[in-house]
Design goal:
Number of strands: 6
Radius of gyration: 27 Å
Structural class: alpha+beta
Shape: elongated
Strand content: 35-45%
Number of helices: 2
Distance between the termini: 64 Å
Mean pLDDT: 81
């Protein structure tokens, strides 16, 4: 076999192996670079306070939203309310509209029903008048978890 034919076969074989491998490496590198600043709107939301409402016993979440987005937009936050046993009581939705990049906004979300163990007419810490025990306060304290966060930049249309 002539020497040029052997060289041609080696080069062709190398290209058949190296081109796909190089393509995969380039894709991984490029996607890593494209997504290095990827952020999730849920990272911008914190539950500042979670306590039962003194009048109704329903759980109330006070949310703080600090926008790290590049543009002004509206945050829609769904909060899941759990009783002291961790059982879901329900969900509520709050909005912080037209929040500028770097700004902080607040919203309050109320649960649809009283958490079990919450006592209407209780103190702000969840203890009922006359109970006052530490175990009672723990049993009555609801938990507020950020369930879902949506962000819609100004000028974009929703789904």
């Amino acid at each position: 076999m002539p020497r040029w034919a052997v060289v041609l076969m080696v080069v062709t074989g190398a290209l058949c192996v190296l081109v796909p491998v190089g393509g995969v490496v380039a894709y991984v590198y490029a996607s890593g670079r494209n997504h290095e600043d990827l952020r999730f709107p849920s990272e911008d939301v914190t539950v500042a306070r979670c306590a039962p409402d003194p009048a109704s016993g329903r759980p109330v979440a006070e949310l703080s939203v600090t926008s790290r987005a590049a543009r002004t937009g509206t945050y829609t936050v769904t909060v899941e309310f759990l009783d002291a046993r961790g059982e879901p009581v329900g969900r509520g939705v709050g909005r912080v509209a037209d929040l500028a990049a770097g700004a902080t906004g607040r919203t309050v979300v109320s649960g649809p029903a009283p958490a079990s163990g919450s006592v209407a007419g209780s103190g702000g810490d969840g203890t009922a008048a006359g109970l006052g025990g530490e175990g009672d306060a723990e049993r009555a304290a609801p938990r507020c978890d950020v369930y879902d966060v949506g962000f819609l930049a100004v000028g974009e249309e929703g789904p």
